[in-house]
Amino acid sequence: MRIEVIGGGSLGQLFAASAARGGAEVVLYTRTIEQAERIMDSGIQVSEATEHDAWKIRFPSIVARTVDHFSEADGKLRWIVLAVKQKHLNDSLLAKLQSNVRAQDRLFCLQNGVGHIERLMEALPEVPVYAAVTTEGARRIDAASVFHAGKGSTSFGRTASARQQSSVEQVQAEKMLMDAFGSGGLSLTVSNEIENAMYRKLLINAVINPLTALWKIENGALLEKEERITTMRAVFDEIMMIYSAAGIEAPLVWWEELLGVCRATARNRSSMLEDVSRGDQTEAAWISGGVVELARRAGKQAPINQTLLNLIEGLDK
Ligand SMILES: NC(=O)C1=CN([C@@H]2O[C@H](COP(=O)(O)OP(=O)(O)OC[C@H]3O[C@@H](n4cnc5c(N)ncnc54)[C@H](OP(=O)(O)O)[C@@H]3O)[C@@H](O)[C@H]2O)C=CC1
Ligand SMILES: CC(C)(CO)C(=O)C(=O)O
């Protein structure tokens, strides 16, 4: 089996290096030639937070090329791990996928937020598209090294509109993927309710990310002031109202779980705070904007999430 990872950032380096460590044949596609050459020369180093340890994976266990070399598979089972950000999923990358990804391939999408799975399924109607929801935390150090900041797990599955009776090939392909990543140190499980995981993660990101980015605080600091908790609750309640109108099952215990994520990631700077601090485009359009779109489709308004989106986009360069 071959695993091809598109995007050599934080998650891309972690997933590519882990799959290679687990014995899969791995190709990592980078945006720049400099990064591909650097990885071919020195490999990828992964620093583990928990083990105070670092490990390295080198050519020939891992091959790096620029994304211009991404092409059709040679008939072998191929998983394509899409590890770019939402903003990178532009027409040019979609066209590249349309030209080179076939029905026998499988697409594994790690993006936070919503909207991308529908878009990919529409662009690639023959291809099995899997949504992946991960609690792994990774931070790119440089072109060839990554910090595995938080050890988590990843659920993956096909959304209801695409889910069919599992074929033997599908079950085998999913098992091979789980085995490869499992041997490399990443825990993956197949989920038959991936939407539930996606909407739970969307809610967590839609509350934590814009507020931490606007207030310029670490995740744990959200719990330090009454005004912050009251604001979080207002965003949470609006999303729960929209989920209910959209027919999305969302238990109230998600509030406690959200507070738990703030505690568990207390010293983290959210990805949106990081993007805003660097002056980069954020994923707000697919997070707060994703909530606004869900509301629109359910015939509801989302004034709080719309305002958060405007505030964040107003900051963007
Ligand atoms: N990091 C994390 O811990 C987590 C991230 N996620 C989600 O995963 C997704 C990826 O996040 P993350 O890894 O942090 O993002 P990064 O910004 O670290 O990585 C994205 C990478 O994609 C590369 N890229 C952009 N366009 C292309 C292209 N056309 N072809 C090939 N490579 C390209 C970028 O290259 P270059 O640097 O050269 O521009 C960059 O290296 C996001 O949607 C995020 O929300 C989810 C959970 C946890
Ligand atoms: C869970 C959380 C909020 C952790 O920081 C995250 O996913 C992010 O920063 O994007």
UniProtKB/TrEMBL annotation:
Keywords: NADP, Oxidoreductase, Pantothenate biosynthesis. Pfam families: ApbA, ApbA_C. Catalyzes the NADPH-dependent reduction of ketopantoate into pantoic acid. Residues 194-314 form the Ketopantoate reductase C-terminal domain. This is 2-dehydropantoate 2-reductase. Pathway: Cofactor biosynthesis; (R)-pantothenate biosynthesis; (R)-pantoate from 3-methyl-2-oxobutanoate: step 2/2. The keyword Cytoplasm does not apply. Its EC number is 1.1.1.169. It catalyses: (R)-pantoate + NADP(+) = 2-dehydropantoate + NADPH + H(+). Residues 3-159 form the Ketopantoate reductase N-terminal domain. Belongs to the ketopantoate reductase family.
